[in-house]
Amino acid sequence: LARNCSEDGQEPVPVYFIAVESLNMDQSADNSRSQSLIRVRSILKRVVSIAVIAVAIWNIQAFTTTVLKLPSRDVNNAVNVEKDWMPIRKQLGIEGYTIGELGLITPESLRNEPPSAAENAQYIELTFASIPLHLVRSKLDTPFVLADFTRARAELPPGLIPYVDPGNGLLLLKNANKQ
Amino acid sequence: MTESAAALLGLAFLIMILIGYFSSTLILSDQVSKKLTWALSPALGMGICSFIFLVFRRPMFTVELMLLALTFTAWLRKWKRSEAKVGSGNPLIPASAAWLIGALAWVTLASVIWIDKGPFGEWDGWAIWSSHARYLYRAGPVWQQYIVNSAHPDYPLLQPAATARLWRYLGTDISEPAGVEAVLITISGVLVLAAGLWELRRSSLSFLIPMLLVGTPFYWTLGVWQYADLPLSVYILITLVLIYLYWERRLVPHLLLAAGFAAGCAAATKNEGLLFALVISFALLIQMVLKPVKGAARHLAMFFVGLLPWVATTLYFKLAVGAPSDIVNNRASGELLAKILDTQRYVQIGSAFLSGFGTFGRWAFGPWIVLCAFVLTWGINRRYLRSGGWIVTASAVMMMGIGYFAVYVISPLSLDYHLSTSLDRLMMHLWPSVLLLAGLAVETEPARRT
Known about the structure:
The complex is a heterodimer of chains A (179) and B (450).
Chain A (H helix, E strand, L loop, with lengths): L2 E2 L8 E2 H55 L7 H19 L4 E6 L1 H4 L6 H14 L2 E5 L6 E5 L11 E5 L5 E6 L4
Parallel strand pairs in A: 3-4, 3-5
Antiparallel strand pairs in A: 1-2, 5-7, 6-7
Chain B lengths: L2 H26 L5 H23 L3 H24 L12 H22 L5 H16 L4 H4 L11 H13 L5 H26 L3 H10 L2 H9 L3 H20 L4 H15 L3 H20 L5 H26 L11 H8 L2 H17 L8 H11 L3 H4 L2 H23 L4 H27 L9
């Protein structure tokens, strides 16, 4: 066994003792390093967790702001078209005309002009409101015809008699030739 | 909405959720916790009830009540048997769950306010989905004849049927039920993500990761807009959670039966869901061929049994109505080939995908930095990544992404228009599933009450 003298000149200490001692010291240094790494990681995890919650709350706050800024139901187009359509739907129900084709005329269609973007949007909204009736543009030979005069009034074609006028621009016309 | 209408609406939802709960409990046996079963109930219940509405129509109430009575009786017998066995082994729920519940309550309240202000939702919500619901409800038995007059009459009918079912309960087609149902499914998606992660990992991250979904404004917006993209994303998530559980829970085939049904619901929600049904079937098949498991054929058969009812109904509807699809119909092979060979399209789609990643959630503050920090801090567990569950679910998500890319390549619409009007919604289909995969990939530690 290789031997070594201790610093104070007393009993020599075997080299392997020194090696084990230094190994233990290395190990405890490693342990404390890994302990501090674990601690750092744990702190990081906590920080990231807080960041996740903070980001979520930030986005939730943005969503809430959007909701609060939305206009009220009274200015919602789909809601208003639905409301305007209701008296006509009721009358058609009384007449027993709840399914099939329903002609649609507008000032533009009566002048043979192509539909504007606003007219197209109104057509889709009216189509939704009048389901399961099928709104057919410029068709005048159905038993009832809907006149969409919400943007402007126009002269009625011959043979179409005003039947229901709720006063909101929509007009249900009866086809005199189809009754 | 009147008080009596609200009460009837509550009853309709209660029956739907209970049918979902009892059926899930019976199918999933003792393989999943009550938390996850409850989380799955609204979406699976909606799938079952919509199917009953479409297939049975007139005796809908009778069929629903009979199914409820049957599943309840079976559940009761099972519950009595298992009651003695149940211990008090519930692990502690971490404090992050309280944050999640609080955030969820807050966003739900905001969504309800939104529905009150815009009860019909956004353009596609009423022009497509509520329109189809109105045909189902108002046109009675001749709805197939008239639905062709609507926009995109080829779109699958799960969501419209769910809305029409609610109107049957109320006896009138008021505007609010569709929005309330959409919010319920939106909440259910968050709960499935949280309960799924908790079921699989029992870690505090189970409630942290879903915070990122709650904090995705576009997820909630799609819900209140009443777009079918939202239920689709929830059905995709449910399918993946159940398939993951199948691989982790000793390959119990009943889990695949439920997963198949959820995939079928996805197929019946949007056309993209049909792609998902195809992709997930393929991913399962490939995984079972590459790593054969005992009874693989029987297990796969269970998946397809679950998948069949909705896929068959949807395909029948498409054939019976014969409505044209804007992606598939009237396409010339020459035009398709020219688009496939046009490299400029790939570049344009690729760059749209890249920029879309950062913005599709319409975040005020993007979650990507914290998500990356989360993955780096927790660390990836390679053992998890090599598991059958992770491979199947991740490959399904990747294939969906590739599939969406391919659809843009051959799209008949103007590419600019198509990308700008749909890419964020398509990404949202996969976002909850991506969060699930992130939560399932990282190293976990047992939950502590903090």
